[in-house]
Amino acid sequence: MNTNHDFLSELSDFLYPRYPYHGQLKPEYLVFNGHLQDFSQRVNYICTLQTGGRISPEEAYRQIHLLWKQLKRAKKGV
Fold first, then answer.
1. Are 71 and 35 in contact (CB under 8 A)?
2. 6, 25, 69, 71 - which has most CB atoms within 10 Å?
3. What is the DSSP string of 19-38?
4. Residue 46: what pLDDT?
């Protein structure tokens, strides 16, 4: 029994949750949904860091702005 693998799998699921897609099943929609979920998760981490005083509001804004640009490029690429 590989409990280390189970623990890492559960930890990954906790840190990077993925939710099922309920829209039209087109490949480009599925790809964008993955990008959108990643964006959401990263923004959540940045907000938590800023709220906890680990990064400044300006740094949080800068990082979220960069993530937004990446998401827009991903949408255009789809």
1. yes
2. 71
3. ----S---HHHHHHHHHHHH
4. 97
What single-letter amino acid sits at 22? H
Q: What are the CA-CA distances from residue 6 to residues 9, 19, 66 (Å)?
A: 5, 20, 34
pLDDT value for 16: 65
DSSP element (H, E) containing 59: helix 57-77
Number of domains in the chain: 1
Q: Which of 63, 2, 77 is nearest to 34 (CA)?
A: 77
d(CA 78, CA 42): 21
Count of Cβ atoms closer than 10 Å to residue 6 Cβ: 10
Q: Is residue 65 part of a domain?
A: yes
| Structure confidence by residue, pLDDT tens digits, 28-59 | 888 999 999 999 999 999 999 999 999 999 99
CA–CA separation, 10 vs 15, rounded Å? 9
Q: Which domain holds residue 31?
A: 25-78
